[in-house]
Write a structure and sequence with these properties.
BirA Bifunctional Protein, domain 2; SH3 type barrels; 7-stranded mixed β-sheet; 5-stranded antiparallel β-sheet; globular
């Protein structure tokens, strides 16, 4: 695997997508940067990370298992790969908040952005972006964020963690297995009742029952009805900034 370290870039995902479009021959490529100036999350959100203290990196994988259709299967496997990477650091209460955030308790410590590479209607590769809060200790504008150092008092070598993460991501993307059950077992608040806020600002209480094949969140309402919600249609009220 080719691994590239950049002192700074706008987005490691954008860097890799451009690399692939220029047809530079490598089946797997990993890139990370000390300073990502325009980090992106899902659905147009931003990923903020102080330079040199955190991991902002991406992995391109060309050989994708045919099992990863729909694309949310990739999301499951990549989130679990990130969880497996974090386990050796003894971070408490690691879980996956639907659809792609990694939490310790109620604090976000990592996130995933998956962007398929398409040739016509066929997915021929994937770029997986990961952000992990590692050695940053203060998050003044991010009340729901924390870091490995805050949670464990360890100072982590970013490059070492990225090497492990890269290996786990490649294995996850190329695996012929999709561990849906383990994803559910790792899901934040599975089978528990939570307060949610809908797109129009109204609030409601429902119990998390699972995930559809397409990646929608299945909620059981108090009236007994079960509804599957798309991303951005609802949010956990506990994570909505006032």
């Amino acid at each position: 695997m080719l691994t590239i370290k950049l002192s700074a870039t706008a987005s490691t995902n954008s860097f890799l997508k451009q690399w692939v479009q220029q047809s530079k021959a490598h089946e797997t490529i990993a890139v990370w940067t000390e300073n990502q100036t325009q980090g992106r999350g899902r659905m147009g959100t931003k990923w903020h990370a102080l330079p040199k203290l955190n991991l902002t990196g991406s992995v391109y994988v060309e050989n994708i298992s045919t099992k990863h259709q729909p694309v949310f299967n990739l999301n499951k496997q990549v989130c679990l790969a990130l969880v497996d990477t974090l386990l050796p650091y003894k971070i408490p209460d690691v879980c996956i908040k639907w659809p792609n955030d990694i939490l310790s308790g109620n604090k976000k410590i990592a996130g995933v952005l998956i962007e398929p590479i398409m040739r016509g209607k066929k997915m021929t590769g994937v770029v997986v972006g990961c952000g992990v809060n590692i050695n940053q200790e203060k998050f003044p504008d991010l009340p729901f964020a924390s870091s490995i150092k805050n949670l464990t008092k360890q100072t982590i070598v970013v490059e070492t963690l990225f090497a492990s993460l890269t290996k786990n991501i490649v294995a996850a993307v190329q695996s012929e297995q999709v561990n849906h059950q383990r994803y559910l077992e790792s899901l934040y608040k599975i089978n528990k009742t939570c307060l949610f806020t809908s797109k129009d600002g109204t609030s409601f209480t429902a119990t998390i029952k699972g995930i559809t094949e397409e990646g929608k969140l299945k909620l059981l309402h108090e009236n007994g009805s079960e509804v599957a919600y798309e991303e951005k249609a609802i949010a956990f009220t506990a994570f909505v900034r006032s």
